[in-house]
Structures are given as C-alpha cells and as structure tokens.
Amino acid sequence: MIYFDNSATTMPDDRVLDTFIKSSKAFFANPSSLHRLGIEADRLLARASEQVAELAGMSGGTVVFTSGGTEADNLALFGLARGNRAHGKKILVSAIEHPAILRSIPQLEKEGFEVGTIRVGRDGVIDLADLADQLTSETSVVSIMHVNNETGAIQPLEEAGGLIRAKSRAVFHSDAVQSFGKVAIPVSENGPDAISVSAHKIHGIEGSGALILKKRHGLEAILFGGNQQEGLRSGTVPVAHAAALAKAMRLAAEEIGRAPYAEWRNGLVRYFGDFDKVMVLGAEENAPHILSVAIRGIKGEIAVNALQEQDIYVSTSSACSSRSRKESHVLQAMGVPDDYRHGVIRISFGRMNSERDITRFKEVFTTFMETIERV
Amino acid sequence: MMYHEIMIRYGELSLKGKNRNVFIRKLRDNIRRITKDLPSVKVKSEHDRMYLIADEGREIQEALERLQDVFGIQSFSPAVRCRADLETIKETAERILSGMDTEGKTFKVEVRRADKTFPLKTIELQQEMGAHLLPLFPNLIVKMKKPEIRLLIDIREDGAYLSTKTIQGAGGLPAGSNGHALLMLSGGIDSPVAGYLMMKRGLKLDVIHFHSPPFTSEQSKEKVVELAERLSAFGTRIRMHTIHFTEIQQAVQDAVPSALTMTTTRRMMMKIADRVREEIGAKAIVTGESLGQVASQTLSSLSAINEVTATPVLRPLIAMDKLDIISIAEKIGTYETSIRPFEDCCTIFTPSNPATKPRTDKVIYYEGNADFGPMIEKAVAEREVIVLPLKKDDDPFSELL
C-alpha cells in the first residue's frame, strides 16, 4: 500500500498509541478529582498542556484541548468574536479557509457580526493589499489558515500579522492543522495569537485537537457544563488524548525540515512538467508535503480510481469535500481554468512514506496517462 | 527585523561603589543560568552594560521573556550591533525602521556616545540621522517628548548598538548578591511573596517547610515544592528543607492549654528554623507575617514567638495590606498555586480560641511540661532536603510525552 492522502488523515504512530494506552491505564482518574489519582492525572494533563504550548511557540499560554480541528476553529471564531465584542463586531477570514471557519460565517452573521473574506491570488496565497484594505479599528478577529489543505499554499502570516497589529486590535487566529510539524509557525510578535491543531493530521489519534493561545485574549466558551479547562471547555478532560496529542506534536516538531518531503515534491513537480495535460497548482514556495495537480479534461475521481487499483491512495482536492459534487471553493478562489478544475488530485506525504513510493507512483501515473491518451 | 543582541542596563547596582564587580558577576551568572538551555546565547558584561547575544532569533525572543524576571536589571532592549561608522549606522537604522509601522508615528533619535573617539558629536550624529531618515520615512513626525518611536543609538568601543524598544526590568539587586537567609514557606499566599521581595533585594534563599502527615497530605507538600520552584525562577537555585512536624505538634497539644497551642507551635517552628539556619550558615530568617492579619500575627504574638531567637527575622510584608500582597502574588505567578485547597499544618490543630495577647512567661511555663529539645534536634536531623528547580529528568512523564 502506498498512502499519499496524509492531509486527509495519517496513520497513528506506534509511539503515540503507546502513550495513549499507557496513559489510559495509569492515569485513568478524572483530573478534577481531589484524591491522589486525580492529582496525578491532573499533573500529567498540566505537563501535556505545557508541552503543547511550548511546541506551539506559545510557552506559558492557554491550551484548550478539543475534539479536533473543527472544534478548535469553531471555539476560536465564536469564542473570540463573542469575547471581543467590545473591540468591534467585524471579522475577517481568508477565502480559502477550511469549512470549519467558512461555514461558521452564516451563524456569526445571525449573531450580528460582519464577516469579510480576504481574496487570494492564482497562487493560492492571500492578497495582503486586500487584507490591509478591509482591516479597520473595529476588526476584532482575523482568521487566516497557515497552510491550505487543498493546495499546500503557505500563507504569509507574519506579514498579515504586521498589518493586523498596525491597523487594528484584532486577535489573530490561524488554523495550523495542515502546517504543524511541516512548516514552522512564526512565533514573533507578528505571528498569530492563537492556532488550531489536530492530532490525526500528525500521526496522532482521531477525535483530538487543541486551540492554543498566547494568552486568553478574551476567549469565551462555546460548550457549557462542569467548567473544566478553566471554564473554556466543559466536559471531563480526556487526559490520555491530551498526552497523546503532546507526544504526536513533539514527534512532528522534531521532524520539521528533516523529512525529505521537499525533495520528493520537487521531483514530482519536475516529473509532472513533462505532461502537457497536467498543471501543478500553487506556488513553488508551497508546503513541502502537499502537492495538488490538475489534469485537463478528466475528472479527478478517475485518477483516484485508477491509482487505487494499483494500491496507491490519493484524493481529489480535499477529503472533506471530495464526496460532494460541489466545486472546490479554494480552486474557484484561485481561478483554476475550467477544463482543469474537475481533474484535481492531491498527493500528500507523511511519516510512513519512502522514496520507493515516489518511484512506484511515477510508474503507475505514467501508465495511467498513456491510458487516457488512448481514450 | 530580527534582533540578535539584547542590551541590558543595570539598576541600582550602578551605584554600589567597590562591590560593583561582585554584583555584575552575580547578575551575569544568574542570566547565564536562566539561559543555559538556549545553546546559542552568550552573555558578556561591561562596566555599565551587559550584552546578551544569540544567533537564533527564537532564542532572543525567549531571552526577552525570561529577562523580565531577573533582579538587578533596570531595563533592556533588543538591539542590532553594527560597525560604528556613519554610513553603516544609517543603513542599519534604515533597515530597522523599514520593518516597522511608521505611518503617522512620532519619532526621535537619541544618541549616547560612550566611545568619545567617535568623530561626530552627539548632536551632530542626531542631526545627521534625522536628515537621513526623515526623507526616507516621510510619515514620521518628529517629537522630542514622549515619541512613539525612539531610535536609540549607543556608540561604544566595539560598535554601535541600535534599538527602538525598551522593556522595563524587574529592578532590585541580583539574587544572591546580598547574603543568604532561610524563608519559612507555608503554602499560603503570603510567604512566597515575602520570599520574592527579599530575593529582589539580593538575598539567596533556602526554604523550610513543616509537614505533618497524615494530617497534611502529600499534595499539600507538592504545592509548596511548586511554590519554591516558582521562586527559584527569580534567582538562584533554592534548597528546600522539609521538617516532619507531627510528633512535635502532638506534644504541643498535650503540654499547653489550647488557647496557647498556636503560640507554642510557632515558637517551635521558629526554633527549628533557627537550628536549620545555623547549619546552613544563613544570617536571617524570612517570614510572610503581616501585622494583625491573624491571631499569630498580633504584636503580642509576634513578640512571644520571636522570643526564642536573637537571629534577625525579616518580615517584608509586616506593613502591607492583604490585597496588595495578593496582587504581588498574582504578578509573580504564585497566587493560583497558593489558593489550592489543601490542609496545611497550621490549620489542622488551630484552636477555636487562640490567644491574641499571649504572655511569653506563661507560654514558657507550660512548655516546661514536655521535653521539646530532643524532639527538635531529631526533626532537624531527619529533615528532607531537595534542590529546586527539579531537573527535567526528574519529570515522571517525560517518557510518556
């Protein structure tokens, strides 16, 4: 099996599973309990939380463990918008955000917030001039993802942050679900104030993620109950999930820049360059682990099926939308030509891949292209 | 703009005459110690400034955070060092400003010329810089008083240091530069604050804690370890002495009428603390007592308790209100830990009617009912000692995470 759909989800790392099992057995107590077992579970939770903040470059910051990236994004958007109403009711998000952000907009608008979207160029990167134009002193929250899940385009967070700081008091959130452990998140003062991460994108366990903030930034809860996690997310805190997330983040962070993803990606870009019908999407500076290409005149689905017959797994654009027939909002926003737009496949690397997988992929893809030429 | 240097200005210690070098060396060692895990950081000290240099921008960011907690620093600035010639200084200033938002900001150039061989006088350099920069950044508005952007140019023998930001330091004197004392640390809100304030005056601290199992839990001891560890972030390493106090507390209950048990218990603590102080060679005892706050802190109580020793007992909180103490505790990050709800050895045996005006002679009379001397010696000899901060290897979770 060659699994190239790591941006959809990754195979959990044995070391992460090991942490999950050991923590589940040894620290099963409720971390809110006063007895020793509870205290020990709470200490593990506190250490995990510290490590998560540190790895995010936000030492001493606030960590809210969530059920995954979507909840972290929802919490950031609603929690920060509601908590910073006094600053203003204007929110800005990029046009290529994950649906966890974009589909929250109608609800935010119902609550009286005004939401603007920031344009992207053909390279899939946001238009900083458009951001600058739309920022006002009443902008209270800006959310710009770090690496786009469909194209791998890296967004200029530091430059965006500079504009945000200069023109508003807005809290700056970034969905770093695709970037954590692959592309370094800027930690300077212009970097984001808050980021979302998800465990299963970094060889962790599904159903677990976190919102990490430099400080509380007025965040309000969106789940109510026993006031766990300083009231920011009610619900018994899953200690083993928290520990496993911290471990997955450490393993991923240690890999930054070491995995040969860029080499593989560049090799594939050169390889695809030989095909007239194939267009590589996104800029050269894109994240090294995601490569999207568009094939002229066919549906992406056909390529997915053909590769699958040879036990190679890729996806059409993003997994979240690949089963729906709707056109990708990201490709639309980037202005990909019509005859290419339906033939997009995404290849994304992970820890379990090797050089051999790339070679094998090229063989199979060449055969596939020969087949469609004949049709 | 990525900075690679931090210019550190000394506080009060610039005044300290011939002890100056001792103070500077102490400060330098303290800074080196808190940056030990940042491999590219180097610290060098000079007569009136200290410089922290790092190749990694991320380490500079981290150092900027940590320096805020170091005593003996008046202020510090992330800085860029360049060759001390006019052209290079101009270029460097240009680079710094082009990385900043200058739109409509008020601006001033300030020059310090420690190296008097530099060809331009202070005023001349100021004028040159203004004439060069203002046409390049036409949105800057010159303002001499309280400008939003203050470009500081410090001409020194090894180059020119340019900075635009000054961060307030913690003040005080370098921890460990002013002698050694023993802090009585209970786990409440006050004693960590007392320790902090004395460390700020340059004291090196050991701490002593009284533990009465099974009446006090392991968690309440852990809490005190955490507090002591937090304090160690402000200066030198801290040794913590834990005294097993159960036997003595029970003996006090038997020997003394209930209204006086609190006073006697405190006297025993003070005696033990004084014995430990003697063994470790410290010169004073520090407590978090604040006049009138509770029954043991009335003037009569303080006097009856103090009667057991001639050692100076430093009480930095004696004249402070509770709310002011709490606000310092919050600032130094001990408050959240202090308010965790565990029983401590003082609350367990608290009588319902403690004497607020105990008579020392009566207290001494009742204490004659038991032979406390050997018990005290035993408690001192059997104390547990640990050194804080705990090493990372001691982290029981390191394998899991």
Automatic annotation (TrEMBL), chain A:
Which residue numbers delimit the Aminotransferase class V domain? Answer: 2-361
* Cofactor(s) the protein requires to work: pyridoxal 5'-phosphate
Please indicate which superkingdom the organism of origin belongs to: Bacteria
Say yes or no: keyword Cell membrane present. Answer: no
Is DNA repair one of the keywords UniProt gives this record?
no
Keyword terms: Pyridoxal phosphate
Q: Which Pfam families match?
A: Aminotran_5
Q: What SUPFAM superfamilies does this protein's entry cite?
A: PLP-dependent transferases (SSF53383)
GO MF terms held by the record: catalytic activity
PANTHER family found in the cross-reference section: CYSTEINE DESULFURASE ISCS 2-RELATED (PTHR11601:SF50), CYSTEINE DESULFURYLASE FAMILY MEMBER (PTHR11601)
- This chain's protein is named Cysteine desulfurase
Task: Name its species.
Answer: Bhargavaea ginsengi
Q: What is the lineage of its organism?
A: Bacteria, Bacillati, Bacillota, Bacilli, Bacillales
UniProtKB/TrEMBL annotation, chain B:
Q: What's the catalysed reaction?
A: [ThiI sulfur-carrier protein]-S-sulfanyl-L-cysteine + a uridine in tRNA + 2 reduced [2Fe-2S]-[ferredoxin] + ATP + H(+) = [ThiI sulfur-carrier protein]-L-cysteine + a 4-thiouridine in tRNA + 2 oxidized [2Fe-2S]-[ferredoxin] + AMP + diphosphate; [ThiS sulfur-carrier protein]-C-terminal Gly-Gly-AMP + S-sulfanyl-L-cysteinyl-[cysteine desulfurase] + AH2 = [ThiS sulfur-carrier protein]-C-terminal-Gly-aminoethanethioate + L-cysteinyl-[cysteine desulfurase] + A + AMP + 2 H(+)
Q: Which SUPFAM superfamilies match?
A: Adenine nucleotide alpha hydrolases-like (SSF52402), THUMP domain-like (SSF143437)
Instruction: Supply the PROSITE patterns for this chain.
Output: THUMP
GO CC entries: cytosol
Q: InterPro entries annotated for this entry?
A: Rossmann-like_a/b/a_fold, ThiI_AANH, ThiI_fer, ThiI_N, THUMP_dom, THUMP_ThiI, tRNA_STrfase, tRNA_sulfurtransferase_ThiI
Q: What is this protein called?
A: Probable tRNA sulfurtransferase
Q: Where in the cell is it found?
A: Cytoplasm
Q: Name one GO biological process term.
A: thiazole biosynthetic process
MF terms in GO: ATP binding; CCA tRNA nucleotidyltransferase activity; tRNA binding; tRNA-uracil-4 sulfurtransferase activity
The EC number(s) this enzyme carries: 2.8.1.4
Tell me the pathway.
Cofactor biosynthesis; thiamine diphosphate biosynthesis
Q: What does this protein do?
A: Catalyzes the ATP-dependent transfer of a sulfur to tRNA to produce 4-thiouridine in position 8 of tRNAs, which functions as a near-UV photosensor. Also catalyzes the transfer of sulfur to the sulfur carrier protein ThiS, forming ThiS-thiocarboxylate. This is a step in the synthesis of thiazole, in the thiamine biosynthesis pathway. The sulfur is donated as persulfide by IscS.
